[in-house]
Amino acid sequence: MRQTMLCAALVLAALPALASAPPADPPAHFLRGSECLDPHLVRGFHTLDHNQVIVDAGRRYYLIEAAPSCWNLRFASVIAFRGDIASGRVCGAPLDEILVRGEPPCRIQRMSLLTKEEYKQVQLERAAARKAKRDAAKEKSGG
What we know:
By secondary structure, the protein is an alpha+beta fold.
């Protein structure tokens, strides 16, 4: 009886601490089944910033966000994927990675499907941002 009372008192004492704890990060989103990326179907990719990549895989398009430590994606001319051991598909699961030659693997944090229109819009925005950056650099250099 005393043990039960002691356990109940400990649980009640811990409740305020649990209630004031900061919320946990939202669960990582990953794809399932036929939504997953088949690395053999990849036709191209574009980096958006230091850790985001859009991938053209034929009839499907993907937005992939790698771990923040993956600063090297921006400079990669070729990437590969390490996915499920059995199927090779990349779903954004905890062990899925982007591989860049000569660098440690980049863990995939988040992965989502894009429509063809969203993919094209992201490409246009990327091209416009790059052009604006080039024009600003040219103007700054006085050319």
